[in-house]
Amino acid sequence: MSHPGIDMVRSLLQESGFDSGTIEERRASMERALASAAPPAGVTVRPEELGGRPAEWIAPEGGRPDVVVLYLHGGGYCIGSLGTHRDLAARIAVAAGVTVVTLDYRLAPEHPFPAALDDACAAYAELLGRGFGPGSVAVAGDSAGGGLTVATALALGDRGLGAPAALACLSPWVDLTQTADSYAQRAGVDPMVTRSGLDEMAAAYLAGADARDELASPVFSARLGALPPVTVHVGSDEVLFDDAMTLVEGIRAAGGSATVTVWPDLVHVFQAFPTALVPESDLSIAAIAAHLSEHFPPAPGRHPTG
Questions:
Q1: Which of 73, 268, 291, 295 is catalytic?
Q2: Exposed/middle/buried for 87, CB within 10 Å: 0-12, 13-18, 19+?
């Protein structure tokens, strides 16, 4: 059964060349499509460097200042920016009632693996340095940012930093080998992502590194059971469907806590689409926000500031 809003998205994307052309052309296409969206009313956006990289602090009116979500944008580690994900991050901030800080981590091919991971860990470390305890910081991301979310959580322990309160992954790309069955099974229905496109971006990001390295493809990690509570949201019609399900299965098999919500007839990072086009986007964001809020400590009388 088709989804009217997604059918319209398919038509628009076929004309846009979103998943074709050079990486520079894809960057420009994504900026044209998403960077012009204004954040919701009642949200303050403050540019400020974090971990040595540009970032935006996105604070909803009346939100808690003592907890924060570090948001890692998608784009195959090669495209995407603060602008392309400002609206999505702001909607999560409003739904959760907390500040979301988005990070402009370095992109491949100019800055290959593990540059993005190093930037995410540095941003997290600075949040701790600003007075946020590990239990007061959650990490979330979409697509490559979802994979980076899990990789960051794994790497933090290696670097002597405390675990985040919780993780949220939207359509996570966690296996850079592109060998899952869903690439073939859903190739005809996912307008957002193709195996060939991800192969190119994986090669640019890895730059010769092993695609099965757990900090590039965390689905292969033997340490998934040590992750903080994870929620995963995925569309039933996306080629990364198996990435999401295999991640959740791996976490559970290792004794960790993971929930997954499969959204029928929906595609890659559908949460980025307007509610008028895809009403489920707000429902998913609300559920993600509830997961993050559930694992934050109760609001204390006094709060650190960012």
A1: 268
A2: buried
